[in-house]
Amino acid sequence: MLPVADLGLLPESAAEHHGETPLCADTPWTSACRTSETVSDFAVVVADYADRLWGAGVRPGAVVALIKANHLDIQAVQCAVVRVGALPALLSVAMDPADLLHCLKELQRPHVLTDADGAAALRPWQDQLGDIAAGVLTLSPEAALTGAVELNEPGTHRVTRRPGTDPTLITHSSGTTGKPKLLVHTVDSLYAHVAPQINVVQSLDYAGISAKCLSFVHVRMSTGILTALNTGVPFLGISSPDPASVRAALLRHRPQTLEAQPNMFLRWETLARETPNPFSTAERYISSFDALHPRTLRTLLEATDHPDPTFIQAYGQTETGPVTILMTRRSDIREPGRLHSRDVGVAFPGMEIRVVDDTGAVLPPGTPGQIEVRTPARAESMIGRPPLPGRDSWWPMADIGMLRPDGHLELLDRQVDQVPGVASTLRAEDVLLDELPDLAEVVIVGRDGTVTAVAATADGKPVDEDRWQQARAKAGLPEDTRVDYRPWEEFPLTGTMKVRRHRLLPPGTLG
């Protein structure tokens, strides 16, 4: 029996069971002892990183904050840190510099491990690192920071095993609505994240490569690598969501399964119209984090040559892991009512969902309210925050939705993103994207008592006014809704490509 959620021990154990299974990235492993092509390679890389961490003085109980370019090697370093008994804290290099510094202070003098990209983010505060960090380690000589030591002197590390209740990983929330929260996961809570994912994989016919283009510091990626190592699914990590890079990776590896964040899939819609079609071999797509725009789901399901493709959606957050699951087939997207549905599926076994009003009273099916969940996968604690309630308590998701009579959950809005006069900003955005194919992105925000659609078009030109007004009316937006056109590149995004809606508002305004 493999140690399911032990990040430090699992790579070596998985190598014994299915060492020749592909496990690779689409770009080189620049700081590793070798480029990983298989599970066995990955285990060797993890052990080498562990030796180098040990040689640099990292010992059991230490915290190692990892800040580097997005790549699958983040997961190997994470496993190595756990292997030597330390606690990895995975921080996104795309985080706002001020938030990054805040997180390092919250970690109370961690070791900082970085590369050239991470060093560039930290360089404005390098004079403060001596007070904030126990030491600065680098994965490459280009990552020049004052006092930094390159991680290149190996020792012989000692393997540390962790009880299930011990902390094993620190990740952070996306920071969509404010400063990122640092979340501590134990071996047991991480296992509760992984178990339903393993069950899904084992219930399906996984044979070809499973490709993931995600933020590799997100807990979803940590549970993804645990799932791959446990099940022996061939795995490809795609480093950049840039459409050209993704197209090249998909045409080279021809994956059977493709997972990405919702806004990545939205950005890739144009790839579905290219020849050769990079999605032609996809049998299933996977998306978690938030509900997917129906236009995007429909575009991708129609793009593949597979006769019966499936789109698997999960809803959850960093604090809880996946809570619901929804499987949509190509034939389903033609059902009445599916076009603008925000259905995110039913609860995974062992997890519970309810919708309540402002007083905490449970609302009947079909009534919008605040979504709460109860799950054994909830994070153990938040660094710098009061103790969390027990896992038998209901956890507020900070989302607005409703439970249908059939048990499916519909997601309507983030609580902080609600706009007066708009029943659901998410549904309104779905309708606009369906009615106006030239929109590459649209986000509804409240501004100074009015409603604004912040929009990007594929060709950079405004939508014809008559077409806009027809789509606006169909989306249920007020007649005086204004449109703020801007390039897609100017949308403020988190590391998981969620739009920071509050940053589309002028200072001092509320929705």
From TrEMBL:
User: Could you tell me which residue ranges the AMP-dependent synthetase/ligase domain spans?
Assistant: 36-377
Region annotation Disordered: where it falls in the sequence: 155-175
Xref: InterPro entries: AMP-binding_CS, AMP-dep_synth/lig_dom, ANL_N_sf, ATP-dep_AMP-bd_enzyme
Give the residue range of the signal peptide: none
The record's PROSITE patterns line, in alphabetical order, gives: AMP_BINDING
Under the heading PANTHER family, the entry gives: LONG-CHAIN-FATTY-ACID--COA LIGASE, NONRIBOSOMAL PEPTIDE SYNTHASE PES1 (EUROFUNG)-RELATED
- What name goes with this protein? AMP-dependent synthetase/ligase domain-containing protein
Q: Which organism is it from?
A: Streptomyces alboflavus
